[in-house]
Structure prediction request, 533 residues.
Amino acid sequence: MAVATFDYIIVGAGSAGCVLANRLTQNPRISVLLVEAGGSDRHPYIAAPAGFLKTFADPRFNWCFTTEPGAAVGNRAIHFPRGKVLGGSSAINGHLYVRGQSRDYDTWAQLGNRGWSYEEVLPYFRKSEDRSTGADRFHGSDGPQHVSDIHERHPICEAFIAGAEEIGVPRNDDYNGSSQEGVGYYQRTIKNGRRVSAAHGFLRPIMRRPNLRVVTNALTQRLTLDGSRVTGIEYRRRGELISARSGREVILSAGAIGSPHLLQVSGIGAPDLLREIGVEVRHALPGVGEGLQDHYAVRVAHRVTQPITLNERARGTRLYWEIAKWLATGRGLIAFSPAHVAAFVRSHAGLELPDLQFVFTPASYSVGVVGQLQPFPGMTNGVWQMRPESKGFVRARTADSGDAPAIQPNYLSAAADQRAIVDGLRWCRRFLATDALRPYRGPETLPGTQVATDEELLDYGRQHGATVYHAVSTCRMGQDSLAVVCADLKVHGIAGLRVVDASVMPTMPSANTNAATLMIAEKASDLIAGKSP
Ligand SMILES: Cc1cc2nc3c(=O)[nH]c(=O)nc-3n(C[C@H](O)[C@H](O)[C@H](O)COP(=O)(O)OP(=O)(O)OC[C@H]3O[C@@H](n4cnc5c(N)ncnc54)[C@H](O)[C@@H]3O)c2cc1C
Prediction:
């Protein structure tokens, strides 16, 4: 059978892959094949923002990985979701739209990645965005990614914000604007009560372009190489192994787990690892899969003295009423993202910029049961350190891309991260102890007031923390010996191959990672087309 040839083959229809498919096929002379391991995203659990709690561990839409046990987190193996569906992780994420601090991107440039400073990437954040409140210096209003404000201000959230101001945290209604610091509501990738994933915003409107072919339920097995040039891919679909050729480039957008994994099983990576899994070394690149970073969150929860939290609205006949309301109006409980209020603070006054991010919700979750709300009124304040120092890896265990790789984030292995978790838990308590919250505040349920010293707080953090799902930096951009791609996202030492997704981030941004991934793909599209913003 003749092998089909496309100018570009994009592996992975996640946040980055959907942006690339859209932008590259704007030129009708360019042909693109987009290959996705998962299937259709047409499902109410994906459309409904509250469906997050369902897709979180649903293998129909999720790779449902597990981390390697971590010595600093009680030797626990932690559930590690990643999207496996059109839209990738943007189809199962928590909808929070957070870009980070201008310093994050200036640091990327300062590390030698020319073109990635804040002023140079801001046009790409703006280009992707359709901000419901309109355009300004920081926001765009005619991009495919809709970003809206919360549709209902819960009285407990209002009290949380008033309380934060009481303890000196300034109100900030746009943490994606001139300054991140302060407290306010999260901006969300939701429109009229429905999720706007990258597939929804970027891919679905252009699916019928004649120069784009989208193949779902197709697991890319490996890259094909001719010497040091990538010539295409092999993917498996319905038991059949299919080859496709790239006339110009293969673009890996398989995410911070999938992209390094595919490089390794294709013979591009650390030679010792490749030999261990029985793969011929095609190109030695020791940094592939190394340097994994992620956010690690812990939480403080309280009972609430009035039956007005989301816990009550999500039970019995009220839940049916909420579903009906959502179907009719796109509002109510089902239209909420899992976090309502954002706070960005400096753990110590001496710091120049915020280092802690908070997520507050007028709801509480059962311990050890994924996504289950508690049967009594509750509220939760979660926290993570925005720029962790702990680093880990993603390493293939076998030569088959269908076998899950070893994922070791090494959470809390750095002393600075341990310190930040203790500071963060103390800050959670400060936020929850304000006068403004007094009418609602019941007893602390997590960790419980008996957990008081630094050692006890750290131990609680080790035993009960979890991923915030922000894996990055496993195919890091840079010029050093462990860098995988250069500033134009081409893989060092290999022709015809780029990586464009969260894996290329040189450092963790002070943010949830979807907005930065969309920006990276917008900029990559211009780099590939030889255009400027
Ligand atoms: C549960 C969860 C909640 C999150 N919440 C937020 C949030 O609220 N805000 C935020 O900013 N960020 C959030 N994130 C993170 C954010 O969504 C990701 O950083 C972002 O989507 C990463 O985009 P990506 O393109 O790098 O990878 P992905 O979007 O993960 O896309 C990779 C795609 O490649 C496909 N793929 C992988 N391997 C192969 C293969 N071998 N063959 C074919 N296809 C393959 C995958 O199936 C997937 O569709 C969350 C993530 C998760 C998982």
Observations:
- The domain at 1-50+87-149+194-292+470-533 is CATH 3.50.50.60 (FAD/NAD(P)-binding domain).
- The radius of gyration is 22 Å.
